[in-house]
Amino acid sequence: MKRIEALEVLNELTAELPVVVTCAATSRELASVENRDNHFYVLDSMGLVGSITTGLALAAKDSDLPKVIGLEGDGSLLMNPNVLPTGGFLGAEKLFLILLDNQVYGSTAGLPTYSSHVDFGALAEAAGWTVGRAADDARLRSEFDRLIATSGPTLLHLSIEAGNASDIPKLLVDPVVLSHRFQTWLTTRLARGSGTR
Amino acid sequence: MTTKSYTQAVADGIWGAGADLIGYVPSVTIAPVIGHLVTADGGTAGISERVKPLSREEEAIGVLGALPLAGKFGAVVMQDNGFGNSLTALTTFSMSYHLPLLIFANTRGGPGEYNSMIHSISQPMPTILRTVGLQVLELDRRSSSEDWEQTVAEAGVHARMTYRPVVVLGSFWNTDGKVA
Q1: Which of A19, A89, A125, B77 has the most CB within a 10 Å radius?
Q2: Which one of A44, A55, A89 has the shortest CB-CB distance to B66?
Q3: What is the second-level CATH architecture of the domain B6-109+121-170?
Q4: In this structure, what are the phi and psi dihedrals at residue A30, rounded to the nearest 5 degrees?
Q5: Is the Cβ of A179 closer than 8 Å to some Cβ of chain B?
Q6: pLDDT tens-digit series, residues A147-194
Q7: Which residues contact residue A184 at a Cβ distance below 8 angstroms, ignoring those fewer than 6 apart?
């Protein structure tokens, strides 16, 4: 499964969920699939998506949102693997990371990560996360459905092919525009949920 | 009249700043601050509903710095040598995305220091933080604990007003607190 094929499926599955997206090719490709208000593109800060998602999951603790989604890469997770023990220790109920693992730094000349030797899913399980694994469309959908209904930190370890989609434009937008757009969507969504509970 | 301790003043200032969630990376100097925060929130053993231990300062910027995206406000309690591993997150996330955040950090490497190398990172830190454009307020023995509390609380107001992180650096030397 190519990254952009995975993102097409995930875009369909997360239409009503906050989605924090890791930098470079992943953000660009998701934005090319659909650039939606519920997407928060982290244009730099490699490694921070898991922490940002943890913070938002804690902030949404009392809401009716089932999960806050973080789309992370294997190279990026290696920049801040603390996400796994911290998420497990805090037991953030609404934390859901989806790890797009292509075993390379996709935006950095395809240099290899540790992923061919290190099982990120096993690391997450050791830290107390509920983990699912997928490598194709059907399994991605079924594991997503299972994990979104699972309380506590969840990680979907998705194996994808190396390589980036061609002719995808860069995201050359002022980050504050992304903040305002996502904050408006999320605070409205949280207020709507609290009003119906 | 009983004078409030400096560590209690910092804790009260953070709550007074309107923090919805607080994350900390431990240091012996701020351990009493963390204790006060946790106690006030009904917790024990370093954790409560709104006070959470974190493993690294960079992570703390991500976790607490994200709260404004959900309409909430976060605070970080840490030691100043931890800014070295969090500058990328502070600049490319909090500052670039215009996200307010209150950071209280105790200082090391100055008067009262015993460690022979920590000054290498801590002494230049106010200059480093200002060079990247962060608002920095500095507190030390020359002002009262009441002033510390008010300054920390106002730093939170200032962060929200400017849509940026604000750093309060506190030197506990010659206060009733502990340097290291």
Answers
A1: B77
A2: A55
A3: 3-Layer(aba) Sandwich (3.40)
A4: -65, -40
A5: yes
A6: 999 999 999 999 998 988 899 999 999 999 999 999 999 999 999 876
A7: A37
